[in-house]
Write a structure and sequence with these properties.
The protein has about 500 residues and is α/β, with parallel strands linked by helices. The protein is about 35% helix and about 20% strand. It has a seven-stranded mixed β-sheet. The protein has a six-stranded parallel β-sheet with strand order 2-1-3-4-5-6, with helices on both faces.
Length: about 500
């Protein structure tokens, strides 16, 4: 009798779905939101549930001109589903929630909870309060209540993890609203960061990405300009940690000690994503970016001198208010000089609440589009040329999960080279798992990926692969009908090269 009651209790366990928009910071926050909900007894809804969950959480982005239209469109599609499902709840958090606050419930009165970027830990309490009081709960904190890394986490990967080292930003870029929504920079204690990394490695994680709105400004809280380079070197001493990456640095804070730490620390990967935004000094000044083209290209030159094989990527905004054809040509010149492995190029769009939105000299859309196409074509050719230089090289590729959409049809697997280039390779005879390392020879290059068509030269099983196998076996062994999330190890795979950092990071 009691056994039947336990089964019934499991079957009615409430499910949740988290929908994430925007940058890596939001992706990491969503891991925390999922962890909080599972810690409170919710279970993750199956993939493809498309709103068919008891709780649907939107973790929003506010940096796009149409971000609110996208949110309200999605909320509108859920309204009839909620009418048919008594007890269903909808929560909205993230940057747009921090910005719009009461507006969300006015435009979508069926929303149950609105919370901001500083109090994501309150989500389970707010959901319960909304359920008991039968009215919407809106709670927006003006400053960080607890560093997100102190919260429970539901990580998606057994071998790669985000590790947040700071939140907020002290810059005042005129196109970016993020500092107003995330607040001033707040750094974690170095000891706490290293303790988290060591715990992740003990669970099987072999690659970590240090994450911050302006990651290389780390240490500004304590006045130590070399704190970030010291952190990189400390990561190099953690046994079992094979790959260290970071995103996104700001050129203003990119100092020689960071370049030296990257070059001299074996597990810091030869990869750099550093937003340029524009190659025009006049536009950079209007953006309130505190460097100029010469300074930016000088950093690139120093990085390449220290790490000749480094892959460097960037962000570029086309059509910023006041950008002349001459300004745009300066951007094209900088791209030719820098020879980025890839660049995330954006057409400028007004971000409500930013100084740039009210600037004179807004560029007609057709002009922005034409310039964007010219820049994209140039960068596409450069990316292809740079990838062709990889042909014939022997690379150690960390096997990834879900990176190659055509892998099943082509009998290939996919993974990331040390410089984060995407590599598709022939499936070896022996079994390999995500997190394992395969040595391959590159035989072909496309603009956005490399191909290794021959038999892999070597396969190395890793603790990360063991962790993936253990996690997969545990998930398969769970009884049918019990919608539990996967064990909390790892973090999202590194973002694909084609996925743009869609907010003001950097």
């Amino acid at each position: 009798m009691s056994s039947g009651n336990r089964s019934e209790a499991v079957d009615v366990q409430k499910s949740y779905e988290v929908r994430t928009y925007g940058c890596q910071m939001n992706v990491h926050d969503s891991e925390r939101l999922s962890g909080l909900l599972e810690d409170a007894g919710y279970v993750r809804a199956p993939e493809g549930s498309d709103g068919d969950a008891d709780v649907v959480v939107f973790n929003t982005c506010a940096v796009r001109e149409n971000a609110d239209n996208k949110l309200y469109g999605n909320l509108g599609r859920l309204a009839p589903m909620k009418t048919k499902r008594p007890g269903m709840q909808i929560a909205v958090g993230g940057c747009l929630a921090q910005k719009d606050r009461d507006t969300i419930v006015k435009r979508a009165p069926w929303v149950d909870v609105v919370f901001g970027t500083h109090n994501i830990g309150k989500l389970p309490v707010l959901l319960e309060r909304a359920r008991v009081q039968e009215e919407a709960q809106i709670e927006i904190a003006e400053s960080l209540e607890a560093f997100p890394s102190t919260l429970p986490t539901r990580r998606e990967s057994a071998y790669a993890a985000w590790v947040s080292i700071s939140v907020g930003c002290n810059n005042t870029c005129t196109f970016c609203i993020v500092p107003a929504l995330r607040g001033k920079e707040k750094d974690r204690r170095t000891g706490d960061i290293l303790a988290e990394i060591e715990a992740l490695v003990a669970e099987g994680v072999s690659e970590i990405t240090l994450l911050g709105q302006n990651v290389n400004a780390y240490g500004s809280d304590i006045g130590d300009r070399e704190a970030f380079s010291k952190l990189l070197r400390a990561c190099g001493k953690i046994e079992g940690l094979e790959r260290v990456r970071f995103t996104s640095p700001h050129p203003r804070d990119f100092t020689d000690d960071v370049i030296a730490a990257m070059a001299e620390t074996p597990n810091v990967m030869p990869q750099l994503h550093m937003p340029m935004q524009s190659g025009s000094d006049a536009v950079l000044k209007a953006m309130r970016r505190s460097y100029r083209q010469e300074r930016f290209l000088g950093i690139i030159e120093k990085v390449r001198a220290a790490m000749p094989d480094a892959a460097i990527s960037t962000d570029i905004i086309v059509g910023f208010p006041g950008e002349s054809e001459e300004d745009f040509e300066q951007t094209m010149h900088a791209v030719r000089e820098a020879r980025f492995a890839n660049a995330f190029t954006f057409q400028y769009s007004k971000r409500p609440g930013t100084p740039a939105a009210d600037m004179d000299g807004q560029i007609p859309k057709e002009v922005v589009q034409e310039r964007y196409m010219r820049l994209s074509a140039l960068q596409e050719q450069i990316s292809w040329d740079e990838n062709k230089k990889q042909v014939g090289r022997t690379l150690d590729v960390m096997v990834a999960e879900g990176e190659g959409r055509k892998d099943g049809a082509t009998r290939r697997l996919s993974g990331r080279a040390p410089d984060n280039r995407l590599v598709h390779f022939t499936q070896p005879e022996q079994a390999v798992r995500p997190g394992d390392v395969v040595t391959v020879e590159i035989t072909y290059a496309a603009p956005h990926h490399l191909l290794a068509e021959g038999t892999p030269l070597a396969v190395r099983s890793t603790r990360a692969g063991d962790a993936w196998e253990k996690r997969t076996a545990a998930a398969a062994a769970k009884p049918a009908g019990v919608m539990l999330g996967l064990p909390g190890v790892g973090a999202p795979d590194p973002l694909p090269a084609a996925a743009a950092p869609a907010c003001g990071i950097g």
